[in-house]
Predict the structure.
Amino acid sequence: MSTPLDSGRRPDHVQISQTVAASLLDIGAVIISPDQPFTWASGIQSPIYCDNRLSLGYPPVRKAICDAFRVHLEDWIGASEVVIGTATAGIPHAAWLADACQLPMAYVRSSAKGHGRQNQIEGVVREGWKAVVIEDLVSTGGSSLKAVQAVRDAGVTVLGVGCIFSYGLEEARSAFEKDDVHCRSLTTLEALLAVAAEKGLLSESQIDSVRKWRTSPQTWRPQ
């Protein structure tokens, strides 16, 4: 399992991207299957399936992800008063990161509770604080930006969103830019494709097919 981020040397972002990509592929959290695509809830056919929740079952992988967040988001974390996870898959990673950095942690629901105090944000957050938001996966960016807005509505400044993996879709990039939100991903689709090719998991034609999907996911079809 590829998790060499504890080698004693400070890893750069390229090494982080490659390490996280290899780890996700090793545990089956990411499956690339351009010949037999998956179907999203929106109806979009995708040659990639990503379930980063599987990382919870692998202590070396989840530690590598936490270590990667600490390096990749160093400036945001250094300026933050709280780490906020998105419900539900971002919560454990936010908790581990907050613990490692000795910061308060909270999480934001997709919508406010319909009972009790009707909170949308759980944990300790204070107006005027600065926060980093942790997400497991960014596809179109919609759910992440909804969480960011809830945090902003609470009077908290969002320094940025950190995610484990992003598909790198133009729709997400445009949405984050429109809402003036910075997003950083530990690993990318290109890193995953490079590692998959190195492992002999994909042919050149399959890699080309995945890249075409990223360019136009709504119209892409398997070859």
Remarks:
- The beta strands are 30-32, 38-39, 45-46, 48-50, 82-86, 105-108, 121-123, 130-138, 157-166, 183-188.
- The chain has a mean pLDDT of 92.
- The domain at 13-215 is CATH 3.40.50.2020 (Rossmann fold).
- The first helix runs from residue 13 to 26.
